[in-house]
Amino acid sequence: MRNFVFLIALLSAFPALSTDMYLPALPILQKTWGEPLATVNLTLISFFITYCFSMLIYGPVSDRIGRRKPLLLGISFYVVACAACAMSSGVWMMVFFRALQAAGAAAGSALALAIAKDVFESDKRAQVIAYVSVIIALAPMLAPIIGGWIMTLADWPWVFAAQGFMGLVALATVWRMDEPLRVYSEDKLSHSFTVYFRILANPRFSGLNVSTALMSLPFFAFIAGSSDIYITRFGLSETGFGYFFAFNALSLMSGSYIFSRLTRLVSTKHILTISFAGILAAGLWMALSTHTGPWDLALPMWVLGFCVGLSRPPATNLILDQVDHDTGSASSLIAFSFMMLGALGMFIVSLDWIDKIQVIGVLGVVVGAVDLVFWTAFRNKFVLRA
Predict the structure, then answer these.
(1) What is the arithmetic mean of pLDDT over 124-128?
(2) pLDDT reported for residue 385
(3) What is the DSSP string of 207-246?
(4) Among residues 110, 131, 135, which one has the least CA distance to residue 120?
């Protein structure tokens, strides 16, 4: 079972490792290619949009033919695309190859939750998701530091070489894995994608999935805007940016770790209520305070990240409990929704704002308020586990 926990964590970490390790290079690529930040950020946005839609393909296919074959194909594609990204000579070439990289990486996140449900019962799965959340939170914490070191010692193409090595490790792990799916879908592959309409027709799944996905708006806006804020606005070095980013990423891990400690003591209902209220409070802190130094972003963002980390394991487990079949497709929809709204957050913060910190704060206020109202109104509609 430990091998499955490691694999689920590694597959779930693909988005963070594929984006955050690359963040310290963005200001340098902006200067090297003479492009505005909004254009260079398309290399992030193209990754996430392609990533989101590709996940919708892997889910139904994996329900029909198993998890192992789609994972082997997707990760192999990812490794090849990493090499192509390293050889890019301009921003539009990078945008294209990042999209190809995303198409391969999507296999990991699309099927990680499906494997968790294949292997573990609900109570155990909540614990596994919490532990995995702690592990994968190390990825965004360490990735920009590693990226900063690579940028100091070499150049940006080596960032993609490091990502390719990560893909090879995942490929070797999947190659040795036994197929976890035991009951295969009987739908014809050509009709498999209609399953999404059946899943979306479940109001408990759809409502909770959207409210959980909304949390990605301020968090991914921070990811896309952090290098510009910390490096360009506050004058930090690439290495200094990596440490500040790691501090913020630590909040996500801390929230998931605290959940793993609280899960037997505090109900899911109360944990989610506290988390949504915390996101609202952190957003108000950022939106209303003055922004004169890096800590004016780092501290309130730490609170927001902690609340996201605290809420995601119980919310994700509760969403999965709303479906009995089509787990691969449901897993894909969960990841798709979170990442697609995350891409929207990246796009919003990439616009020509006077104060990007305030923009992130406003997103936190809106998301926290909407989620808190939704959860307060409908929480009794869900089957909640202590």
Answers:
(1) 68
(2) 46
(3) HHHHHHHTTHHHHHHHHHHHHIIIIIIT---HHHHHHHHH
(4) 131
Nearest in space to 110 (alpha carbons), one of 341, 339, 343, 331:
331
Q: Which of 297, 349, 294, 241 is nearest to 24 (CA)?
A: 241
- The Cβ of residue 63 has, within 10 Å, a number of other Cβ atoms equal to 28
Q: Where are the domains of the chain?
A: 2-381
Give the angle subtended at the CA of 82 by the CAs of 24 and 13, to the nearest 5°: 65
Asked whether the beta carbons of 276 and 365 are under 8 A apart, the reply is no
Helical ranges in the chain per DSSP H: 2-12, 14-19, 26-33, 37-40, 42-65, 68-86, 91-119, 122-153, 157-175, 195-200, 203-213, 216-227, 238-262, 268-288, 295-320, 327-350, 356-378
Tell me the CATH number for domain 2-381: 1.20.1250.20
pLDDT tier at 279, thresholds 50, 70, 90 = very high
Evaluate whether 342 touches 239 at the Cβ level (below 8 Å): no
pTM value > 0.85: no
- What are the DSSP calls for 75-143, one per residue? HHHHHHHHHHHHT--SHHHHHHHHHHHHHHHHHHHHHHHHHHHHHS-HHHHHHHHHHHHHHHHHHHHHH
**Taking phi first (over 0 means left), then psi (-120 to 50 degrees means alpha), and beta for anything else, what does residue 66 get?**
left
CA–CA separation, 198 and 330 (whole Å): 10
Contact 27, 232 (CB under 8 A): yes
Closest Cα to residue 210, out of 304, 333, 322?
A: 333
